[in-house]
């Protein structure tokens, strides 16, 4: 039976984040694109729509980056998978950053009701540089392209899902790869199988050599 590798990128990004990764030849690669959420759609319903086209009898492995990792976990709750590989993500409620809990306990989530121009239109360069650690003009250009072209309906939904998400179920087998310098999802609350010492939240792109070596070991 053929082996299929399904890739899920981070919030608002696309298959370009994987362009520096070399995957083992024995896998057929598929990228699962983000969809526009339906009104009040749950994560479970959204994950079901994302994978509706995948044949039930396929031998699949999931590779999820950041928000894509959280969706990968939900997919693994709904159908059998051979393995889940998380990169720069979290797998349980306990691994949520402290500031997520602050947002949950306060009314700051109400800021999502602000107009698009106010909520998403300012200081994008600063956010990308600080939280995602873009290390080159090429990376910064790619990230700015994501920010400028991400649908705001999707972005509001994804932020709310990410902040309020809770999970205690870890599928087996699961492999977690994380960066020691990740500012978006700090390593201090994460228990990872592999830690990239100088990896930030965008290490899928700028630490591709190290991640490729790990994937080669885990996918063979």
What would the keywords be for this entry?
220 residues, alpha/beta, 6-stranded parallel sheet, 6 strands, globular
Condensed summary:
This protein has 220 residues and is of the alpha/beta class.
What's the helix and strand layout?
Blueprint: E1 3-8, E2 27-31, H1 43-50, E3 59-65, H2 67-78, E4 83-87, H3 98-105, H4 116-120, H5 124-131, H6 137-149, H7 152-164, E5 174-179, E6 194-196, H8 203-206, H9 208-219
Helix pairs in contact: 1-2, 5-6
Characterize the structure shown.
- It is a single chain.
- The protein has 220 residues and is an alpha/beta fold.
- Helices cover 38% and strands 15% of the residues.
- It is built from 9 helices and 6 strands, in the order ββαβαβαααααββαα.
- It has helices at residues 43-50, 67-78, 98-105, 116-120, 124-131, 137-149, 152-164, 203-206, 208-219, and strands at 3-8, 27-31, 59-65, 83-87, 174-179, 194-196.
- α2 links the parallel β3 and β4 (83-87).
- Strands 2-1-3-4-5-6 form a 6-stranded parallel sheet, sandwiched between helices.
Q: Gyration radius, to the nearest Å?
A: 17 Å
Give the biggest beta sheet.
Answer: 6 strands, parallel
Strand content: 5-15%
Q: How do the strands line up in the largest sheet?
A: 2-1-3-4-5-6
Count the helices. How many? 9
């Amino acid at each position: 039976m053929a082996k299929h590798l399904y890739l899920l990128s981070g919030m608002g990004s696309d298959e370009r984040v994987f362009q520096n990764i070399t995957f083992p030849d024995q896998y057929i690669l598929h990228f699962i694109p983000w969809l526009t959420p339906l009104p009040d759609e749950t994560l479970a319903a959204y994950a079901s729509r994302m994978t509706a086209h995948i044949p039930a009898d396929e031998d699949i492995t999931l590779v999820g980056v950041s928000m894509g990792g959280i969706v990968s976990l939900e997919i693994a709750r709904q159908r059998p998978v051979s393995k889940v590989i998380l990169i720069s993500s979290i797998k349980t409620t306990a691994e949520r950053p402290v500031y997520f809990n602050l947002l949950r306990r306060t009314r700051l989530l109400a800021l999502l009701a602000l107009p698009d121009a106010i909520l998403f239109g300012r200081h994008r360069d600063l956010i990308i540089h600080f939280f995602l650690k873009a290390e080159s003009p090429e990376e910064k250009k790619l990230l700015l392209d994501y920010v400028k072209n991400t649908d705001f309906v999707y972005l509001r939904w994804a932020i709310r899902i990410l902040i309020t998400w809770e999970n205690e179920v870890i599928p087996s087998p699961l492999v977690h790869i994380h960066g020691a310098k990740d500012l978006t999802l700090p390593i201090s609350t994460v228990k990872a199988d592999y830690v990239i010492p100088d990896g930030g939240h965008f290490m899928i792109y700028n630490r591709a050599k190290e991640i490729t070596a790990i994937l080669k070991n885990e996918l063979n």
